[in-house]
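Assemble and predict.
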Amino acid sequence: MSWSGIFAAIVVLVLTAWAFRFAGRRTGRPYFRDMGFASALGWVLLVALVAYAVYAFFFVDQAVFFRWLIIGVVIAAVSAFAFRLLGRHVGTAGSRKAFRHMPLTASFGILTIVVYALVAIFAAWLAPYGQEAIVGNANILPGGNPATGGDPAFPLGTDQIGRDLMSRLIYGAQNTVGIAFATTCLAFLLGGTLGFLAATVGGWLDQVISRAVDVLMAIPSLIFALLLMTIALAWAGSSGGQLTLYMIVIIAVIDSTRVYRLARAVAGNIVVMDYIEAARLRGERMGYLIFREVLPNATAPLLAEFGLRFCFVFLTIASLSFLGVGIRPPLADWGTMVRDLSQFINFAGYSPLTAALPLMAAGAIALLTLAVNFLVDWMLHRSSGLKD
Amino acid sequence: MDSVARVVAQRLLLGILTLIVVSVVIFVAVNLLPGDFAQAFLGQGATEGAVNAIRRDLGLDQPLVLRYFHWLGNALTGDLGTSFAQANFSSFTGTAAENLPTVASQIAPRFANTMFLAAVTACIAVPLALTLGILAALYRNSLFDKTVNMVTLSSISSPEFFLAYILILFLAVLNPVLPSISNIYADMGLGQRLERTLLPALTLTLVVTAHMMRMTRAAIINLLASPYIEMARLKGLSPMRVVVRHALPNALAPIINVIALNLAYLITGVVVVEVVFVYPGIGQLFVDAVKNRDIPMVQACCLIFACAYILLNLLADVLSILSNPRLRHPK
């Protein structure tokens, strides 16, 4: 499209918006009568975009990725709607009530998380081949059509050394998500315990831990993780399993600083309550104070933080693997897959499905993070008592 | 004004203290390595003599505290040491090492490239985020607000490389508008350099704009609930004027803070994006050094990233004190 074309389109849009507002003022309806020019322009833009999207969806042959995107969004919306409908009629009274006021985004989030969890748990049954098994020729193209270099036995093709990509994508859920989940749990155990301890005991212990956390938080987390991974690489040598273990500990420690901050702040507000004072006067032990008095009252903010922290950990692990210092092959992992398959993106013009392979692995990461974010958004909205 | 100067001076001192402690952490962490570089470099069959010779060359035989001060002193004068990957050990080869590329000489041009990338990103992202944030606050709870909210949430949720590859797919492969690989040379015209930097800059823009825009929106909406805004609205001012003339000046403190924090985030987000686009910046140098276990290089890059991060956070702190009257006169 040329510059003059773009300019003409803008002029037409602006004129249409002006005409729309002018016509709207003639009607008596309050919304149209008081509509500003910006709103009118917004509506006109929306109509133009929708019209172009419909045109591209049905009539532009090259817009394959756009078509996939639209189909994906429609499928996601419909399944989220169906899931919410299901949730409203099945389950306990409490869960039914929660589903009744749920926005579509939140039900999409829950559905996605459930699907990921199921895939991760049952990966061994779902995947047609093992994750490390070399089962076919190398570099079979996806699509399953022998005429275009595919093979019906491998719907998504094989990688550089002949491992089935679909199986590796499925096992990726187990490895990437599982490792991120374990890391987040460890970070919470560490940061939560220290945070509660610091808030309950106070004094010099609080000072020492807090200052140490301040220092650790002064280094950007990805940079710090990379620095420590250098050391882990030296310690682990060529052992991939050991390296993964070190990575879990490193990221858990780095992220536990953020958990510590929140846990200490939340617990700090709780320990000044009268019932804690009463428990102290009763002579309860520290363990009782932390687990029976503080923890139950700090669940809601910590749960939301768990979701957000999981996203950060998940993205950090994926980034480390993408950079080549995270989860080691032969374990299937999405970050590493994106890096290994990234060159396929250059074939988008000839074989869109091949180009979509790296995007599938990266999209799998993005989708789960988005789902967790949607869910946390809704949980925070609900617990903050905002009802609008 | 006196108290402001004192508070700012306190923050600056605290910042310098943090920097020193961080440098200790970086140094100690790296020196936790089992064995040392000499053993790793020579392999298992090395004789005691050869290992000792290299240790002496690199100064690894001195105590840890002494080495730290030596390293810090050199770093402050701009000498970050010699990269292990480039090192040519005089005792090992028998010739004196001369004219070796030092860490500093390798980092300097790449640091400039990274700064260029960050600057281009900031130039696109800051105006875009502010405009979108103000518009979203103005038309909050409308379809526009919800769409922007959804899009920004998606771009925050995506790993940087996902956004990068999507941009490559649409802007470099399907519609070849921009180059997908940013090979940049020293003697390159500004126009060409901009063209090759644009795609990584756009990727970073997507990430950073989302954060900035959401925080701008939140800051302005927070203010819109205050009585003096109600007053301005009741006077009959247009919504745009209420936001731009009445709400925005008071929202400036949190917004400046947000911008500085996001620039700090940008410094670290640069690592992944540089690797995707093979952009010759400091992030890529860092990742390569990590993989090669090139200790002086890792230390130097880490120190630079940490410095930039701490300084920008400090800047955010100081600016928010200076631009907020309530913080300027603490009780």
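The mean pLDDT of chain A is 85.
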